[in-house]
Amino acid sequence: MSNYKVDENGYYGKFGGAYIPEMLHPHIEELKNNFRHIIAEEEFQTEFSSLLKDYVGRPTPLYYASRMSELYQTNIYFKREDLNHTGAHKVNNTIGQILLAKRLGKTRIIAETGAGQHGVATATVCALMGLECIVYMGAKDVERQAPNVNRMKMLGAKVEAVHSGSKTLKDATNEAIRDWINNPDTYYLIGSVVGPHPYPEMVALFQSVISDEIKWQLKEKTGSEFPDAVIACVGGGSNAAGAFYHFTNHPNTRLIAVEAAGEGVNTGKSAATTALGSIGILHGSKSLMMQTVDGQIVEPHSISAGLDYPGIGPFHAHLYDTKRGEFYSATDEEAVKSAYELTKLEGIIPALETAHATAILKKLKFKKEENVVINLSGRGDKDLATYISYINE
Amino acid sequence: MNRLKKYFKNKVNTDTLNVYFTAGFPEINQTTEIIKALDVAGADIIELGIPFSDPLADGPTIQKSSETAIENGMTIEKLFEQLVNIRDETQIPIVLMGYLNPVIQYGVERFIKDAAKVGVDGFIFPDLPLIEFKHEWEDLLKKEDLSFSFLVTPETEASRIVELDKNSSGFLYAVASSSTTGSSKTSVVEEKTKNYLNKLKELNLDNPILAGFGIKDKKMYRMINSLCDGAIIGSAFITHIKKNGAASSSIQQFISSIKE
Ligand SMILES: Cc1ncc(COP(=O)(O)O)c(C=O)c1O
Description:
heterodimer, A: alpha/beta, Rossmann fold, 16 helices, B: alpha/beta, TIM Barrel, 9-stranded parallel β-sheet, 9 strands, 50% helix, globular, binds pyridoxal-5'-phosphate
């Protein structure tokens, strides 16, 4: 059986590793040499769990969506990450990493953000800990995710608009990494399961609380820990990694990842990495990414800023490569329609990113008796303007 | 023996100027012209940049030159086409610098063979990890007699410097300050730069040491040459040709301002 854990060199199968300039070598060594024993300490674990409980509001509910279940003739459960403090799963990771940063003695925190959810979650934990916070955000995303920009500012973070390249998440990540090169004492709080080893492993570990809870919650409700399928959207892949984590070695649970097809996989305006990508190196790791035959990274497109990324994390590339994961995509339009449907039927306005996961219900048929868990990665407050203008058009 | 190794073997008490520019910048078809003009003007080594869309180790100047070069249509294939007759015209050592992703798409073995064929002498790929170098690159490079320069920085531990030096040939690339290219950090921390380059000297490394990142004028060029085997100038040259053009007179003027 395949192993889905990272190996000692930081690889998931042939993906992962640390492809970084020498300037970053000491930074990465410091993390690699310290993070495992720091997060294994009892004191760390206690502080982490108590913040997740009392500050974030965990455990998040596992909600049986009866009207959606009725419509799709199966059993649909929503893992309500949208109910976390700050409105998405991102905060699970920022709590973990800020505790790590503190123990490493760092006082200046930098982050990249797409939808602004990771930026808000980072600004939040920096406010909580009294640390300086700088968030890099593509200029295009600053525009389309204005409410989150204002939240970050109110939380005391400095938001740096990035004007290079496609002016989205990819370029924000480049700029954050360059900041880190120039400021060796800084902690880089990465927001997804991407980047050089050990980041993908570390972020997945902090997000694994999602599937940890799904297991006991589902057992309470159905008698079995294991769903027949777990569905999550994939930008870099952190909410999906967290939702899949404890099920990867349980072959009877289907792991279903949904990427953003943008205007359609073959329109040239898409972010469906597994459909369009090939093996390559971006942001310090080897994975699948969208690129030209000459190896230039292609500018992706998605209506959802959080999925507008030309790659996926190495863990997901490995799930795809070994066929353990099933990868699908949903278009801008399918996601928006699904968000309206979910809102009407269940009274839940999902984030645009999340709506890609729910959109897949129109394409996949599940059996009546099957239990399907969909990770509701975030809430849609930040996307209201997009939802309203899309429908009016 | 490749031209780079030969250059350092024959070097006696002179300073060394290695000039970086991005292939395909400012115009797609100026690559060989610029190389020849740099040679005539008195540069000693050429570091030729292969443009990449996401150059993590580069500051704004080289980022923009890379963007322009990609827009102009520069690719590895195109570059090798342009260099096919370069050795009929100049014997200046040429080192290719870039990021791994375009090379992986081209094919590592094919890349090394084609580079050797057109008369390239060595490589710098800052994001190539040592383990992958040993696994995939080392034997191929030996077979073609091509050099490879690893980077070291002021934060690199002594034991790692020695290891990176052992795996390098031609020269070892000393990043002058912990920064991206074109940084102004190098000038303000002269004392720190001095201590660092002196420390490198004391390690009695196998390779000559060239220092780069943020070196932009005669004063810094002199200082660096007094502390190690030579200096690499990139962003300052790109800025110059962006403003004054890449005609041979403009290039001559830049090199004179550094060397004389
Ligand atoms: C609500 C929500 N879901 C999903 C994502 C995508 O990120 P990831 O794939 O790392 O979960 C984002 C990113 O901003 C997000 O805000």
